[in-house]
Amino acid sequence: MINRIAGVFARRGYNIESLAVGLNKDKALFTIVVSGTDKILNQVVEQLNKLVNVIKVVDLTNEPQVERELMLIKVNVERDKLPEIMGLVRIFKAEVVDLADDTLTIEIAVRRQKMGETAPFLGFSAAPYPDLEVTIPSTSRLSTGVDAINQNSNESSGGDVYPVESYESFSANQILDAHWGVITDNDPTGFCSHTLSILVNDFPGVLNVVTGVFSRRGYNIQSLAVGPAEKEGTSRITTVVPGTDESIAKLVHQLYKLIDVYEVHDFTHLPFAARELMIIKVAANAAARRDVLDIAQIFEAQRVDISDHTITLQLTADIDKMVRLQKMLEQYGICEVARTGRVALLRESGVDSNYLRGFSLPV
């Protein structure tokens, strides 16, 4: 399905700036950022709606929205510059996920504009964020998949809190369960979820070419995140694919045959930092609001929007923590869920998170 959607853009020469796919047992939600005129993008929406398994496509460009981008960035740090870098981490409300002798890995989840503002300070290219220099109204965010609520809200006056639909028109549907489909148990056959990091040339259609390798060999992509890499003109694709070590090694070999693929790394058996960003809208009236906020505080989720009948939360964590939060909130009614898919970087410190989770905390 990912290959079919990417193909619609590739055949029309569109370069996908950012793509996030959140998958669960039987549904998927695609969030895509692509540039183009309103007329042409309307034609793309029509073509996407013709795909058999596409339920709904919404252009959110001119709609009130809560948007976030997630980035893991590894920075070369000299010891005498570490206090300065840590100051920037606090200013941009980032989190340190790994610290080695000469590198620092940082997690940051903010609005697109604020993400671009960090570029000069953290030393990565700001080219993917042209809205820092001039507003480009033709950049559209397409949401493809299942939506629980049709929003007809008034324009926001600014910030991250927006007016929402009236209480009388509200209805809550359980549209996404907490079954994420990632294989975590030890399988005697060696079948498990593999995390691949692919560095590619950034040009229209490259995603379609890469995902075509997966689809032609019958691989089921469980998670996919695409975004700008550290150098201008390159993109990094992070994907989770089930398979044995032998079959994934053959897949990596096939990916290296593609002209526009620079690097392919299988992080599965190496120490790596992995994060996903989830935005979840929960049905919560005045009576249930305090309980939902208490749960959010326990899971260190941030409140990004609130109305008289819903609360929208943002959580950046690993997949296990996301599953637990979603299960805790199911009793109140989950309206909508959007996920980025997994992003990952190797831990230069060599700390193995899976190994540490095997130890019980002292009482």
From TrEMBL:
Chain ranges passing through the membrane: none
Pathway note: Amino-acid biosynthesis; L-isoleucine biosynthesis; L-isoleucine from 2-oxobutanoate: step 1/4; Amino-acid biosynthesis; L-valine biosynthesis; L-valine from pyruvate: step 1/4
A Pfam family the protein falls into: ACT_AHAS_ss
CDD domains reported in the protein's UniProt record: ACT_AHAS (cd04878)
GO molecular function: acetolactate synthase activity; acetolactate synthase regulator activity
UniProt-listed Gene3D superfamilies: 3.30.70.260, ACT-like. Chain A, domain 2
ACT domain sequence ranges: 1-62, 195-269
Keyword Zinc-finger: no
Entry keywords, A to Z: Amino-acid biosynthesis, Branched-chain amino acid biosynthesis
Cellular component GO terms, alphabetical: cytosol; peroxisome
Top-level division of the source organism's lineage: Eukaryota
Alphabetical GO biological process terms: isoleucine biosynthetic process; L-valine biosynthetic process
SUPFAM superfamilies per the UniProt record, alphabetical: ACT-like
Keyword Amino-acid biosynthesis: yes
Signal sequence, start to end: none
Family membership: Belongs to the acetolactate synthase small subunit family.
Name of the featured protein: ACT domain-containing protein
Organism: Setaria italica (Foxtail millet)
